[in-house]
């Protein structure tokens, strides 16, 4: 259980835990389950919202669903034999996450409506001071599981403040606003937009889609899972595991085309074009919707209803981004003007500039955002130089272009578990600090492999790339390779920090040691 300690200011008491987990989506709940399985119960999960679920709680827009098959988009330790469809909707995934919180008895650890305002490393006591919206606590280790799809990105459009109608982001859907008969501008053509468009097209008066870059859209092989299949999965659990294994294996075999042989994706492009040609008969509209970059360079989207919706008479496609708003008129970069009643932004999230990084202050007094000013990087996607006993789930270069992120999350949970075991073995008050040289070496290897991938050579600009054009998002290999790379913590990649003793206090130390606030013990000593 959490301890109560007396703080240095005015003798006040504060709470101390061994581990503080930030966020309660797949990453945060997965971390909580793994902690309990490791016998660790002295932890809290800090969640800024009023319910668990992360991005699957926040994204409740019409048509929201996963583009990874249900049996692969779930924890290996918590299979769900009762998925209703091969690709699950938002409400089913949210129910699954709520069930995880109950089944594994996590509720007592979860603190809802508790937003983390600041995390500061205390170099003398080797712990993190965490300021939240509900109070302050300290933790030996912080596991940040806020995720890259947690903070919506809305472009700063000139004149947007003058718009008299309704404006909202897809991740903050206003369910009280009635779209029936309205003139609506949909901004963006990403994964959210292609699900939203077919749903709202049926009820709006007119829909104008602002498209900067057309996406590649593949058919979606979605169907209801029969009662017989679900019965079989319940009675014979190995059938669920087999189904998951097949789905995983197919995607592992596909990775080579994305990472080493992008030219082999031509056949996939032809399938995507046939998907479009079946629904889009107008040559001019086809021209607008045909990508000019290699498939896979941007996220491949799945839909059977997107193109048919765009062909409807109440839909216009403007092949240009939104440039300006003049009162109730939205103006595209090509000069097209459209009168609308509502603007919906499907413009993605802060992926390569995660806002949580502004709230993490490391051992040198600088923020993680400052440390990452030239691009995000972390040792094995988990730990950052200058931030001892802090790790992230779904960190830099852990994203996937064709498989389930739950596989990557579980690999990072293995790394987290071994990290905590190493701290136990080292004994006493201790911290592990990723060596700058180790982080740099890891990032160099990742970026070298990235050069051949479709994400870097496919001829597009995507949200995988940061402001400097560096791919800090995607993992350039298989999930099997990542699992092997994160199975164990290599202590040679870390410095072991301990609090300074009486003798050290009077002994001059190097600048590096002074910044870390503690004497360093070489790894393996």
> What would you say the CATH architecture of the largest domain is?
3-Layer(bba) Sandwich
Strand residues, percent: 15-25%
| CATH class term of the largest domain | Alpha Beta
- Number of alpha- plus pi-helical segments: 16
Q: Indicate the structural class.
A: alpha/beta
- Please report the distance between the alpha carbons of the first and last residues: 32 Å
How would a crystallographer describe the biggest sheet? 9 strands, mixed
Level of helix content?
25-40%
Number of domains: 2
CATH superfamily of the largest domain: FAD/NAD(P)-binding domain
Q: What is the CATH third-level topology name of the largest domain?
A: FAD/NAD(P)-binding domain
Return the average pLDDT rounded to an integer. Answer: 93
According to DSSP, the number of beta strands is 22
Q: Tell the overall outline.
A: globular
Low-confidence stretches: 7-12, 503-525
How many whole angstroms does the radius of gyration measure? 24 Å
Task: Tell me about this structure.
Keywords: FAD, Flavoprotein, Monooxygenase, NADP, Oxidoreductase. The protein has 525 residues and is an alpha/beta fold. The chain has 2 domains: 16-151 and 351-497, FAD/NAD(P)-binding domain, CATH 3.50.50; 160-215 and 298-345, FAD/NAD(P)-binding domain (3-Layer(bba) Sandwich). Helices cover 31% and strands 19% of the residues. The chain has 16 helices and 22 strands. Strands 1, 2, 3, 4, 5, 6, 7, 18 and 19 form a 9-stranded mixed beta sheet that branches. A hairpin with a 6-residue loop joins strand 1 (3-6) and strand 2 (13-22). Helix 11 packs parallel to helix 14 (479-485). The protein is globular, with a radius of gyration of 24 Å.
């Amino acid at each position: 259980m959490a301890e109560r300690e007396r703080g240095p200011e005015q003798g006040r008491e504060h709470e101390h835990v061994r581990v503080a987990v930030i966020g309660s989506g797949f990453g945060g709940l997965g971390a909580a389950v793994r902690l309990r399985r490791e016998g660790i119960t002295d932890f809290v999960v800090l969640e800024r919202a009023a319910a668990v679920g992360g991005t699957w709680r926040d994204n409740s827009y019409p048509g929201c669903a996963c583009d990874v098959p249900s049996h692969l988009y779930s924890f290996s330790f918590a299979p769900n034999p009762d998925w209703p469809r091969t690709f699950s909707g938002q409400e089913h995934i949210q129910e699954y996450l709520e069930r995880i919180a109950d089944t594994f008895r996590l509720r007592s650890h979860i603190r809802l409506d508790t937003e983390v305002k600041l995390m500061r490393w205390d170099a003398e006591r080797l712990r993190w001071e965490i300021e939240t919206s509900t109070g302050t606590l300290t933790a030996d280790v912080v596991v940040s599981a806020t995720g890259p799809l947690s903070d919506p990105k809305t472009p700063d459009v000139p004149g947007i403040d003058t718009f008299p109608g309704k404006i909202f982001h897809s991740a903050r859907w206003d369910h009280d606003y009635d779209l029936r008969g309205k003139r609506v501008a949909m901004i963006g053509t990403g994964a959210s937009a292609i699900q939203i468009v077919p749903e709202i097209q049926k009820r709006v008066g007119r829909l104008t889609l602002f498209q900067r870059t057309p996406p590649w859209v593949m058919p979606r092989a979605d169907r209801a899972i029969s009662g017989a299949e679900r019965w079989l999965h319940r009675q014979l659990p190995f059938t669920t595991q087999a189904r998951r294994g097949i789905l995983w294996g197919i995607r592992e075999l596909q990775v080579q085309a994305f990472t080493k042989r992008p030219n082999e994706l031509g056949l996939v492009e032809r399938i995507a074009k046939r998907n479009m040609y079946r629904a889009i008969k107008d040559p001019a509209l086809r021209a607008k919707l045909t990508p000019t970059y290699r498939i896979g360079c941007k996220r491949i989207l799945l839909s059977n209803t997107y193109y048919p919706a765009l062909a409807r008479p109440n839909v216009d496609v403007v092949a240009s981004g939104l440039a300006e708003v003049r009162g109730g008129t939205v103006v595209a970069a090509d000069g097209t003007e459209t009168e609308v009643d509502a603007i919906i932004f499907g413009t993605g999230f802060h992926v390569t500039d995660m806002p949580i990084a502004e709230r993490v202050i490391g051992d040198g007094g600088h923020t993680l955002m400052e440390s990452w000013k030239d691009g995000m990087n972390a040792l094995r996607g988990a730990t950052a130089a200058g931030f001892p006993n802090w790790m992230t789930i779904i960190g830099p270069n852990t994203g996937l272009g064709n498989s389930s992120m739950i596989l990557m999350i579980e690999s990072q949970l293995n790394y987290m578990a071994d990290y905590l075991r190493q701290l136990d073995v080292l004994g006493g008050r201790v911290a592990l600090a990723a060596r700058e040289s180790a982080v740099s070496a890891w990032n160099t290897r990742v970026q070298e492999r990235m050069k051949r991938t479709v994400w870097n050579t496919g001829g597009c600009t995507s949200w995988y790339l940061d402001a400097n054009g560096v791919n800090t998002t995607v993992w350039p290999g298989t999930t099997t390779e990542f699992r092997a790379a994160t199975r164990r913590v290599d202590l040679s990649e870390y410095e072991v920090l301990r609090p300074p003793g009486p003798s050290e206090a009077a002994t001059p130390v190097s600048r590096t040691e002074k910044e870390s606030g503690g004497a360093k013990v070489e790894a393996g000593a």
